[in-house]
Amino acid sequence: VYGGGASAAAAGIGAPALNVAPPSDADGWLDAQGGFCVERRLPDNERSITAISFAPDGRMFLALDSPPTGDADPLILYDANHPSRSVAVYDYLTDSNFREIFAESTRITGLDWHNGALYLSRAGEVGRIPDGGDYEPLAGGFAVNSQLFHANNGIVVQGGYVYVSAGGVKDGYSDGPIQGMDEVNAVNIMAGGNPYAARIVRAPLDRLLNERSINAFETAALGVRNPYGITADPSGRIWFTDNGATNVPEDISAGDEVNLLDPRQATGSDATAPFYGFPLALTGNYGTRHVEPVATLVNTAAPTGVAWAYGTVFFGVYGKDPGLYRLGSGGGQIVSERIMLIWPLLAVATAPDGALWLGTGDGGLFRVTPGC
Known about the structure:
Low-confidence stretches: none
Shape: globular
Strand order of the largest sheet: 1-24-23-22
Strand content: 35-45%
Structural class: mainly beta
């Protein structure tokens, strides 16, 4: 069980904690806790599933990649721009009709279906695939650090905007703690000078479709290291995970977090947008507009995908104590509990019928429902 940084009331989480046992090396593989059922699909798939999205008619879209386990080719795995990835469609309602619709892509880390098109976040670029059509680039120029897996990651369309979780290109601690400066200058060092990195960025959807330029994007929030998953809850709030710094002493929070962004606070300006602490928090200087995380995770947890399901937030952890986690309210505070030991969990998404789906780096595809 991990502690939280925000009260349950402030986070709007009413689902109670399940009081499952803390993570243990003795936990059973794929042995779900808390009354959840686990069903595997596509058992013969061996390609990594890095993102999942759904059309309302029962089609599931999967971003496929070389697996990060086993005999992975490092020349492909660590090169985000190697054209070896693809997008496949699968009818999960009938468990049939699996086929690729976009091949020879760069690394894909985010998918979101919206209004007849599949939106993609892939290495350095955002684009879309209109239903039945071909891939269309919409914006290029995002920062990419291939070997560290830092780039524009998750994507979600919400409230007329396209939100992208955009990673920084430096570490912020092993590269040397950054201190003695304001939030924007610190973030720009982490971003390598790219104004669309180390931030949550957003673009008005209509403007992006008209201009097809990264200039349509603006800062929604800053102060993140490598935000991965991003999603919206039923009220329209934005949730995202952040993978914190490395080589950080245990008595300092490295910034592995689950965070919440109110779109009304996304001013579009570096000078006034919410600041989530990184990297100034590593030196105790949180800045003047710091937003507390909803859940503070252990160092090197490396959270990945995130989704709203069954009245709360579920997210994946890739690093320390890996698996599927759930946020719950305990004693008025948020706690995060591991529901299932699974690795390497990359994609977490909710289907139109409300079921939670998981995609792993070794090709596993799982449907998780309550009631067992």
